[in-house]
Amino acid sequence: MTSKFKGIGVALVTPFSNDGQVDYDALDKLVQLNIKNEIDYLVVLGTTAETSTLTTVEKKKVIQTVIESNQNRVPLVLGLGGNNTTELIEQMKTPEVLQFDAILSVSPYYNKPTQDGIYAHYKALSSASPVPIILYNVPGRTGSNVLPQTVLRLARDCKNIIGIKEASGDVVQGMRILREKPTDFLVISGDDMTALPLILAGGSGVISVIGQGIPSVFSKLIHAGLSGDLATANQLQHLCMPIIDLIFQEGNPTGIKSLLSQLGIGTPTVRLPLVTASESLSMRIASSLESIMTVKV
After folding, report:
1. Residue 165 is among the residues annotated as catalytic for this protein
2. Catalytic pick from 24, 41, 122, 136?
3. Domains in the chain and their CATH numbers?
């Protein structure tokens, strides 16, 4: 099971038309681009998908679109997280969940539970989930950090919690989990810039934002790191660093949507309270993208 999620996954955006409606044709195009360029699995309705701004009807159609576009070619992960444990358990009972290979569940945000509270939250989800769970630690968004000892406790106590997307950006924190984790437990980077260092420390790969915009280059980077081809991995890391910096300068998914629009996939449109990338940033992203596309890798 865990081998499905080694390598590179991408957290898909939800493309919008200029009037803010979901562009399902663009979503299909995005899925095709990524599978063609050796992305190993797809994450649907994560943070990058602006899921909190989508209606229930839109979410269902996004799921349907990705499943039909994928045609069982790569594993699919469903973003399903929040700060109401009871509501999440009810959502796990919906038929859509069974169409996915795993759930990616972000640590509770805003209410800032203690480590014992985080443990109890995930323990309850584990008992209810019909599919494996990947923890998601992103302190910059949730306001709390899932500490290594809590991750390890969950990894040992809950057999269907199979890994963590570690997006603290702290490679040392990831290394502490790697040092003591059960053998099959996955430590997946959730930070594009530090994905390679975590992989070289023993991590299993990345769930990426930039990967969906430059899938050929970034998949080569991640696969090179996993195979021990350090010369190639480092070359590609240095190539990708400037554009990784740029896409997060005005928030996510503002930057990656600007990049994708320049590839002819959707528009730069995001839903409030996010706003589209500034003209200055869009121009810098375009220039950086052009530099990457002209390099033979």
Report:
1. yes
2. 136
3. 2-229 (3.20.20.70)
